[in-house]
Specification:
Histone, subunit A, about 300 residues, alpha/beta, Rossmann fold, 6-stranded parallel β-sheet
Length: about 300
């Protein structure tokens, strides 16, 4: 496959690890723009709970795919890839470099690797959807953990759409979703990939601090404004679904906040598991006296 000229710098990893600041520093150094590959930061209605860059950060360098869609326009990984690829190619042509940042590995892979031609059958999908409605999310989680434990450790297990898709594919092919998805790990881009390698306890502390900051910034009010749309797929998201459960009397207020912290830590753990699939990942040490940017070999 012929390589696209220019270099793609990817900053990925778990939530609350400092990806946004590093991406902005990279964009400044490279004099280019940033493509956000976060599966929830697309949506205009969801800002505080998705930890979008601040207005000040957004003004420093152009971010593509922030506030770009409504929750009424759900964005899949394939849709994102189709929309983002011409943006990425244009940045490489104009600037010789581009920065991609986000914690959604599936979306990053869809853009840079392309998507595998994995089969789909509406009837099988509908079967698992009906089982979800009759048996609940726990049933789907148990089925996937049994049939494909590798993907279970990577996927957002609170997202029924992704669970249903994986179970559909397993039933159709007799193979695990995880093994089918890694079959297309090639791409036309020259990539440098980075993560900020916090110790687990420190990362979890940063997550708890971020949740507290979100609460002080008005997450409760933001979630309240979206309560009427709580059944939409985009809102099946940590930070919102727990408050929806609070208003439906499933949790107390304090329990809802504790659940947000717990579920965010669980999500970060799955993000870390996802990173193990990349052989080209460079870990940056946030404890080093050398600043993160000085640890990056900018080979452009």
């Amino acid at each position: 496959m012929e390589k696209v000229k220019g270099r793609v710098f990817i900053v990925q990893g778990p939530t609350a690890s400092g990806k946004t600041s590093l991406a902005i520093d990279l964009a400044r150094k490279l004099q280019t723009e940033i493509i956000s590959a976060d599966s929830r930061q697309f949506y205009r209605e969801m800002s505080i709970g998705t930890a979008k860059p601040s207005e000040e950060e957004l003004q420093q360098f152009k971010h593509h795919f922030i506030h770009s869609h409504s929750i009424h326009q759900e964005v899949s990984a394939s849709q994102f890839a189709a929309q983002a690829k011409p943006v990425l190619d244009d940045l490489l042509m104009k600037n010789g470099a581009a920065v991609i940042v986000g914690g959604s590995g599936m979306f990053i892979d869809a853009l840079t690797f392309g998507l595998d031609d994995i089969p789909h059958d509406l009837h099988v999908q509908e079967k698992w959807t009906q089982l979800y409605h009759s048996e609940g999310l726990d049933f789907l989680q148990g089925q996937l953990e049994e049939k494909d434990p590798t993907y279970y450790k990577q996927v957002d297990i609170y997202n029924p759409v992704r669970l249903i898709r994986a179970l559909e594919v397993i039933e159709l092919t007799g193979k695990t979703y995880s093994e089918l998805r890694v079959g297309n790990m090639h791409h036309p881009y020259d990539i440098q990939r980075f993560r900020i390698d916090w110790e687990r306890a420190d990362l979890y502390a940063r997550i708890d601090q971020r949740v507290e900051r979100m609460i002080s910034e008005g997450l409760l009010e933001e979630a309240k404004s979206l309560f009427a749309f709580r059944h939409m797929k985009a809102l099946n998201t940590v930070g919102y679904s727990e408050f929806f459960s609070y208003w439906e009397n499933e949790y107390s207020y304090d329990e809802a906040i504790a659940k947000i912290k717990q579920h965010t830590r669980n999500y970060a753990k799955r993000q870390l598991t996802w990173l193990k699939r990349y052989s080209d990942m460079t870990s940056l040490n946030p404890y080093d006296e050398l600043p993160l940017m000085d640890q990056i070999p900018l080979m452009v």
